[in-house]
């Protein structure tokens, strides 16, 4: 804890990542506070210091500080507290492949490689952080944010995505991509849909968007997001990347689905509700919240979702008989069977 070594700071980031991925949000948040002080003591927030270093070491410092910011935003979403860092405390790393650094890894006077707009090994890291930052910024200002301003900021982010990633609808543009590029393309577009969904939920909350049409649209889009993550997880499993989707739970999408299943199930077809339940159960199973008692109990978001899920399950089991539920929807198994048969 008293070290000023970049390697020690990076080791602390790994520890925070472990706790956050394991559901220990409060522990992760406490460690983030310590990491902020250590990082500032190391001068990671002062980019002026990089003039005294090689470009490569300077960029490694930027990457470490940016990743801490990303972890902090994830804690904010899971536990509902404010960020420990400000937007002005970091400079973005350059978007280049690692091979661009080979000629001057430790040469102080060599120029920094210029960022490119094409896909590199850093693209996912940078776009993921920008998406989290946009979501946090928009949600924190929803009380005073106009619909037009929210639309403009979302449109700007989508334009940035379109510049760096081809549309999945354009098969000719995506078939030549590597598996990692295809994964990143789909993941970033799903992240954008999550941000847009969270903003629309806030607009409904503050009465700027009203009516059953927008509420029904939110439910269907939230189900689509959960379904998209399921497909993405399966397609990435053959490359050993499925673990990535256990780290960033789509809280807003899951909450939107459960809220509508709990309070407005009559607005949706049986097929839509079955799809929603199937994806919701996969969501809980993916994050081990059904089968492992106590997992994630530190997070306020998980506590709310578990409670909503229980209420929605009870209501669904009361409304529909056992014949309504096809085999395979109950990935939690015993819990579903007990609720369904106790209500019939």
What does this molecule look like?
This protein is mainly alpha-helical and 344 residues long. 61% of the residues lie in helices and 0% in strands. The chain has helices at residues 6-21, 25-41, 55-79, 123-140, 147-164, 171-174, 179-205, 212-237, 251-263, 270-286, 300-319, 334-342. Residues 168-174, 330-337 and 339-344 have low confidence and may be disordered.
Task: Describe, in short, the structure shown.
This protein is an all-alpha fold. 61% of the residues lie in helices and 0% in strands.
Structural class: mainly alpha
The H/E string reads HHHHHHHHHHHH
Oligomer: single chain
Distance between the termini: 58 Å
Overall mean pLDDT stands at 78
- How is the biggest beta sheet arranged? none
Q: Counting H and I runs of at least 4 residues, what is the number of helices? A: 12
Strand content: under 5%
Secondary-structure blueprint:
Elements: H1 6-21, H2 25-41, H3 55-79, H4 123-140, H5 147-164, H6 171-174, H7 179-205, H8 212-237, H9 251-263, H10 270-286, H11 300-319, H12 334-342
Helix pairs in contact: 1-2, 1-3, 2-3, 3-4, 4-5, 4-7, 5-7, 7-8, 8-9, 8-10, 9-10, 9-11, 11-12
Using brief descriptors, characterize the structure shown.
344 residues, mainly alpha, single chain
